[in-house]
Amino acid sequence: MRRGSDKFGGIALDSLIIAAGRALAGGDPLGALKRVALRDDPDALALRGVAMAQLGDFTRARALLRRAARAFGPRQPRSRARCVLAEAEVALAARELLWPARALAAARQTLAAHGDPANVAHAWQLTARRLLLVGRLAEAERILARLDRRALPPALQAVQELLTAGIAMRRLRTREAQRALELAATAARRAGIAALQAEIQAAARALHSAAARRIGPAGARPLHLAEVEALLASPAVIVDACRRAVRHGQRRVPLARRPVLFVLVRTLAEAWPQDVSRELLVARAFRGHHADESYRSRLRVEMGRLRAALATLAAVEATRDGYRLLPGQAREIVVLAPPVDGPHADLLALLADGESWSTSALALALGVSQRGVQRALEALAQAGRVQCFGRARARRWTAAPLPGITTTLLLPAALSSG
């Protein structure tokens, strides 16, 4: 069979390489592997690595991409930088958030020096995606603002709008998110990449899925993001269990670092307009079995602290049997709770995105210690709620997604940043 050739990055490429590259661009990894599976030249190794990544074998993909980068060597810096870029994307897909950012920055500079603006933009988008995962929204937003959407190819335009929608959803700007998802869907159709279209459809479903629960006198009911946005803009006093804070309009009292006070105010808010007995408050806040005099004294101290903390938002009133929360100038008190409550709910929310996470990535995304994450995962594994695969540093954790729930949008780490 006669093989034609073409030029790509200054390198002569035969027709099989070109066809494999087109297959990958169209989201057909098996078609690409059929053409280059038995070849070990640098271009074929790189394409095989990308194909394996699209098939979900991240370990094999990284090994192939590293072999390709070594084979290209210093004489082909542009091709080598593209391999580094692909490896960074694989690391992001595998939730290895500690992958060295310097290597990606160096690759981006090399690509810029060799006139590859599309891959330079792709490198910036990878950086923004990592920042989005760890909740650094303002930094991700600044990176996206420097990219000209009109100059990007359709696939990168779709990714750009998807990232914009992700930031808007985490900031609870639902109209902005909806508009960005519509633009992303249009760009993805032009690109013709089925996997990208599916990702955008999943994000659109998340926008209209249950993101939290409203707990009030009428009971609990699920809320999607637009309803959460409307509730936070309402005149009610809101005890926000997603971010462990109490808010009323623009005023906000954070209690994330005062867990006892938050347990007390949430317990009082869930019972509003009724009071709560001292026995129940002691059991919830101190895990005491009986409200003896020592617990009652401690409860009085903590209630005094809570009264001082909420002075501008609500009042705490002592009653004959316990305490009651009063809304002050507001009409009502509402609890905004996560869609899934209980121990380690934020950890389960991250794992429920269906991706495999390392403990270091989970710790970074949640802003907690890695050892604390390991202990929580061990407890969840014993309860059968999470599962792991791999050993030592290659171990990854995952959980089955909860149907109909927007799992990662109201995480404290994401919403407290940016």
- The CATH topology annotation of the largest domain reads as Arc Repressor Mutant, subunit A
CATH superfamily of the largest domain: Winged helix-like DNA-binding domain superfamily/Winged helix DNA-binding domain
CATH architecture of the largest domain: Orthogonal Bundle
The number of helical segments is 19
Question: Helicity, in percent?
Answer: 55-70%
The top level CATH class name of the largest domain: Mainly Alpha
Structural class: alpha+beta
Tell me the distance between the termini: 57 Å
Q: Give the CA-based shape.
A: elongated
Give structural notes.
The protein is of the alpha+beta class and 418 residues long. It has 19 helices and 13 strands. Helix 1 runs parallel beside helix 3, helix 5 packs parallel to helix 7 and helix 7 runs parallel beside helix 9. The protein has a six-stranded mixed beta sheet with strand order 4-3-11-5-6-7, with helices on both faces. The protein has a three-stranded antiparallel beta sheet with strand order 8-10-9. The protein folds into three domains: 115 residues, Serine Threonine Protein Phosphatase 5, Tetratricopeptide repeat, CATH 1.25.40; 126 residues, Winged helix-like DNA-binding domain superfamily/Winged helix DNA-binding domain (Arc Repressor Mutant, subunit A, Orthogonal Bundle), CATH 1.10.10.10; 57 residues, Orthogonal Bundle (Arc Repressor Mutant, subunit A).
Brief account:
With 418 residues, the protein is of the alpha+beta class. It contains 19 helices and 13 strands.
Primary descriptors:
418 residues; disordered N terminus; six-stranded mixed β-sheet; alpha+beta; Arc Repressor Mutant, subunit A; single chain; three-stranded antiparallel β-sheet; Serine Threonine Protein Phosphatase 5, Tetratricopeptide repeat; 13% strand
